[in-house]
């Protein structure tokens, strides 16, 4: 990028199949830091490493082995919000007519 005005910026990288990454973040899905640019500054060799997304798939069956249709499936993980550990849910997805679900765009972590 050339001829960028001096100031503070947030640099985020997105690509299909990868977790979005923000400059200065300590890991995927973490907040980053601002990038301060001054006049006549030249930044080179700025490397941002992207992490591939994961996909979780499965099938939900009832006690008779029949598919459960339109079941809501969400992914939950613990996050620290205002210094407190809280359970947080993803938007999730619903099962299809075969009881199958697919959760995509999952960042690395414990769920």
How would you describe what is shown here?
The protein is an all-beta fold and 111 residues long. It has strands spanning 7-9, 12-13, 18-19, 21-22, 35-37, 51-52, 54-59, 72-73, 76-81, 84-89, 93-94, 100-106. It has a two-stranded antiparallel sheet. Strands 2-4 form a two-stranded antiparallel ribbon. A hairpin with a 2-residue loop joins strand 9 (76-81) and strand 10. The relative contact order is 0.21. The mean pLDDT is 86.
Rg over CA atoms = 20 Å
Give, in order, the helices and strands. EEEEEEEEEEEE
Helix content: under 10%
Specify the number of helices.
Answer: 0
In one word, what is the shape? elongated
Compile the SSE list and pairings.
Elements: E1 7-9, E2 12-13, E3 18-19, E4 21-22, E5 35-37, E6 51-52, E7 54-59, E8 72-73, E9 76-81, E10 84-89, E11 93-94, E12 100-106
Antiparallel strand pairs: 1-5, 2-4, 3-6, 7-12, 8-11, 9-10
């Amino acid at each position: 990028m050339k001829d960028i005005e001096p100031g503070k910026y947030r640099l985020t990288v997105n690509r299909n199949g990868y977790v979005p990454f923000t400059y200065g973040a300590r890991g995927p899905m973490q907040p980053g830091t601002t990038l301060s640019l001054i006049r006549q500054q030249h930044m080179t060799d700025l490397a941002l490493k992207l992490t591939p997304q994961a996909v979780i798939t499965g099938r939900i069956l009832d006690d008779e082995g029949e598919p459960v249709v339109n079941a809501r499936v969400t992914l939950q993980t613990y996050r620290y919000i205002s210094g407190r550990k809280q359970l947080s849910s993803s938007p999730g997805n619903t099962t299809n007519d075969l009881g199958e679900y697919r959760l995509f765009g999952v960042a690395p972590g414990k769920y």
